[in-house]
Structures are given as structure tokens and as C-alpha cells.
Design brief:
The structure holds 2 protein chains of 2 kinds.
Chain A (H helix, E strand, L loop, with lengths): L5 E2 L3 E5 L5 H14 L4 H22 L7 E8 L3 E8 L14 H7 L5 H9 L2 E7 L3 E9 L4
Chain B lengths: L3 E8 L2 E10 L4 H13 L4 E12 L1 H16 L3 E5 L3 H9 L8 E2 L2 H10 L1
Chain lengths: ~150, ~120
Amino acid sequence: MSVPDKNTNGELRVKSKTENLSEIRDFVSSNATKAGIQSATIDKIILAVDEACTNVIKHAYKLSPKGEIIIKVDYNDNTFTITITDYGQSFKPDTVPLPDLKKYYREHRVGGLGMYLMKSLMDDVKYTSVPGKYNKVLLSKNIKSD
Amino acid sequence: MAEFNTSIRENGDINIIDLKGYLDAHTAPTLENNFTELIKENKFKIIVNFEDLAYISSAGLGVFMAYIENIRDNKGDIKLTNMSDKVFNIFDLLGFPLLYEIYKKEDEAVNKFNKD
């Protein structure tokens, strides 16, 4: 059985396959709903997590379906935080400016948009990487004003 | 698994791709295949109808960027219509309205093609 291990208290473990993105989105959505976040904000969080996990699948695991992705959710009255851990190759996204879409268009570059979206949609995005061990992306959203 | 499917309609020499469901890194190849097929058949006037699209990530947005140059080089275009506010906001955040014609209604896109 290739059913991913699941935990009900804020943690999801899935294999690095794009077909698992919908399960990841559902997991984030149900936790964010439980936290009482308004739906427009939930949509932003879901997209940011999708982008982060897509990057893990494409760049850390280079599209190999055997890697593990751990998505952990924590929240309090002020902040909703998602931590995404993988054991693939480390990749260091530079600080990402507003993408020059015209340049991307000319150069057929489609990567990089996800990183820009994550930074735009969330209040904080932090990367930690221990090469050969793990990579972590921390995504935080202020929810106090909701 | 995310549900996503497309269907293609013809309106004169214009082809309209209707999107339905969730467009992400997993489902984007379905839309890529649609564009590849249309280009192979020299059909370069393309409207994409977003009315039933619930979700899009950058992998989905990337599909439009991957084909637009080839299509415009062949005197065609990809015009986008009927987006929900939620989907439009993502396009807007990335500056797509500068590069793509986005219409509220499909008729407007059809008229624009027929005028050009």
C-alpha cells in the first residue's frame, strides 16, 4: 500500500509526487479553517504551501517520487505557521525581486514565479538548509486582524 | 487527486479551451497538451475560458508563458476570459495583465479577434 502516513494533529507526511499536492492543499485548508482564518486568507496560505511543496518536488527531489515531504502546522491567536521539511538536495533561493515577466517571457523561464508568490502571499518566508541532511521552509501568516 | 479537465470548442477560426477544476503542477501537462495540439494544427487564435477554474498555481500560469511567444509569432494570441476574482488576483500579482488580454466575457475576446 502506498498510502501516506498521516497524523491528525497538524502533521502530514507525503511522498514527493505532484499528485499529492491536492492532499496537501486539503490538509492546509482544514487546519486553517480550524484556526478560524477567513477564507480569502486561507486561499493565500494554500497557494503558498502548494508553491513551496512544488519547489521541493521539482528542485529538492528533482521529480523523484520517493522523497518524503513533511508538512507541519502550528498556530496561535496571532500567527499561522507551516513548516515544510524535505531530505532532498538543498537549494538556496536568493531573495526574489518582482519577476521581470517580460524577460521571463522572452527567455521562456517559468520558474521563480512560485517563490515570488510565496513571498507576496505570506508575511514571512524562511529557509533553513543543512546540506546532506534536510531543508526547511517556514511560512508564516499574521491572522490577528481576521 | 486534483480534478482538472479541459475541453475545446470552435467559434469560426477561434478555438476556445474551457478549463475546469484545479490547475497545478500535477494537472498543468493536460493544458500543455491542448496548446501543443492546437499549435500542431496551426490554430493560433486561442481563448481560454476560466469560468469553471477553481484554482491556479504558478505551474498553471507558466503554461501560458510557455506558448505565447510561438503563438504570437504566428499572428495569433491567447486571450483569457471569465476569471473569478480569486484567480485574477494571482495573475495580477505576477503582472500578467501587462502581457495578456484578459476579458470579463468570452464575447469580448471573440470580438477582439474578429476585429484584428
